[in-house]
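Narrative progress, year one. The postdoctoral researcher (J.K.) led the effort to move from monomer predictions toward full complexes, under supervision of the PI. The following entry was the first complex the group processed end to end, covering 785 residues in total.
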Amino acid sequence: MREEISETTTTLFNRYVKKWKDGGGKVVGYTCTYVPEEIIYAAGMLPFRLRGIEATSTSIGDTYYGPVICSFPKCVLQLAGEGKYKFLDGAVICNGCDSMRRLDECWRKASEDYEGILPSWFYYYGVPHKVADYSLKWFVEETKRLIDSLEAHFGVKITDDDLKKAISVYNKGRTLLKRLDGLRIMDEVPISGADALAVIIAGTAIPRDEYNKLLEELLEELEESKERITGKKRLLLGGSVNDDVSLVELIEETDAIVVADTLCFGSRSYVDLIEEDGDPLVAICKRYLTHSFCPRMFGYYKERFRFLKERAEKAKVDGVILQNIRFCDLHGSENGIFERDLEAAGIPCMRMEREYGPLVETGRIKMRIDAFLERIS
Amino acid sequence: MAGRLQSAKKLKEYMTAYYIDAKSAEANNKKVGWITSGGPVEFLIAMDIIPVYPENHGAMIGATHQGGMLCEFAERRGFSKDICSYARSDIGGLLSDDPSKKGPVGGLPRPDMLICCNNICGTVMKWYETVSRYLDVPLYIIDTPVIHTGPIPEDVLDYVAAQFKGYIKFLEEVMKKQFDMDRLFEVSIIANENVQMWNKVLRKCANRPTPMTAFDAFTHMAPIVTLRGTQGVTDYYNALMEELDERIARRVGAIDNERYRLLWDNIPVWHKMRDLSIFFADHNAALVADTYTNAWASTNITTEGERDISRAYAKAYTPIYLNIGIDRMLEVIKGLADIFDVDGLVLHSNHSCKPYSIGQYDIARRFYEENGKPSVVIEGDMTDERSWSQAQVTTRLEAFMEMLEAKV
């Protein structure tokens, strides 16, 4: 994989962010796929998805979160506490799940002990859990409030035209990523699952215009490339948040390749586009509200299962790995039901629990994957 | 020691009658609605639906040491061991084919509808969805945005109020009859009286010595949770209060030699109630207050100045203890600590309940910084006895008691 893309998967303050900041640009962090990146882009800023990838301990995360919480937000807080997010000019925290929504408070509290770690604009953004006309009404209000706060703090103005341009740019990026999906599901695959994840992650850490260009170039290279991966067990990876390329590398160290995913650092972030006609703010809210791929939303199990099954079938996978980070109530509730329904549909499935970041146990995971591959071979 | 409250016998009769009523609902042509503990039960009462609380069932499962066994049924079907043990044990009971392994009351009566309010956590949504699919029963969700600080914004109130209107429609569809708004007003007034009575009961623990402890409150909270909105709750708490007043008049404490007064945070460890109550009593410590039972002592449905009753309910049910920010939670704890004059905090870091357990270390530290009073965090689980290390908890609690001895 190109070095500049690989760098974004392991380094928060990557060369693109550095260049952006050197040019006087502002960077706004956000927690999950329910925060509209388009709004931040429309304000002329770089949306940067918060990650926990450089954490080597969870000592700070444990202090403010306590022991029985998912290690992903703990690692994000750890990095914040260590000052590694000081390059952020702002951050938007949303209620993706109970643990993530508390990042708002835990980060604020940590900033009372660790000076200067709280971005000057730190905003909590509520997203409804159910889809209804009144949910959309509230969500539009909540999003207007987000825009007002962003404008007031940074002294910028977000016009409808800015939003329309942002929608168009992000839709283009999402469409390109769907093209990448098309390559990944080929019989002879031009890109490994680890590299594909790196490409997707890069989209959350590189200015979108540059990213779209880079992605176009990369897709052309891949389409023309003669190097193909064949003869491996084809897998789909789903479940909790995963921005850890090494997890996919671990899977692919075996006789397997990850050819599809249903991850939020993955297909869940780009399969649905925003309507380009009509009121852009309402169009953005509609897309994010009806974005039912995450179990944070009420209902839609059947739709989520259909999404998972269709992706598995299209990619002609030999099996599905559903992982969840410990203490993830959402995926920890749903993965077992997915497993039952996938197996009933004749798609072998392995469910595993894991930790995130410095707590990950590679030996145990490797053993589980080996056993699964043996079962499906 | 004063021994057990006489009211405990009445409580047992009261709750048994309630469960018999619920279990025989179908035979009596009545409908049953399962509802989350933070859910607006008044609407069910107004529609003459019998409310059933899987969380209350979870408490009974824990108290009868059946949590681990029932949780395993759910875990074998793929539910993560780190999910709330109320959810796991409830789902486990549903999945169990063995009638003797469905929980202490032989399983809950089959629901005709499910009502889930996520003001307590996001897990309840997944739990109720699972039950809804498994039993093929209609489910209504009330989504309550978090109110970290400050008043509830108008658009949030409108959002939640719209859902209360939807709730009425949902009940009308399930029950196939019109909702009686006048009856809801009546029930709301009774619910407010119930809550005020429960608050008065808990306030009795401000006396020295306290006439009851949080361990009693954990048991006697059942009516305010399950039967809120009915006259029987007020009557029951009136009788309980008389008994507490009588103890106060005689200066009879719930424990002998009350020396330390402590505040409990989080859901009780149901399977260790007896052991913990003995431990604290042996160390002359009374748990005089707790954040859990107090959560049902402040909800007030105020229709005054509101356009409609749905907004009054939105106001009452949105900013509850688990749906507010840590600063506000600390304020609640500090308020209780003042009222009940406590010497320290016992925080249960609950493997099952993330929203309750997040930030406890920070709360403990800030409480110490502001009041100079110590805290102890013990790790456990409300229902699943497998997540309990007796040696570790004893060591921590003994060290805490030694620290208190040096301070008080």
